[in-house]
Request: fold
Amino acid sequence: MTKQMKEMENAPLKRLVVIDEFTRESLAVEAARTFTSRDVKLTL
Reply:
């Protein structure tokens, strides 16, 4: 197992949640170890 793989095992799982504040409806839920700005743009 490489050093990078070991680091990724311990990396926290992050969530990107998009919610409509008026209806309180969940529009998107994404989970990943990392998010780039491109990932966020694609989700929005």
User: Anything to note?
Assistant: The CA atoms of residues 10 and 33 lie 10 Å apart. The longest strand covers residues 26-32. The first helix runs from residue 3 to 10.
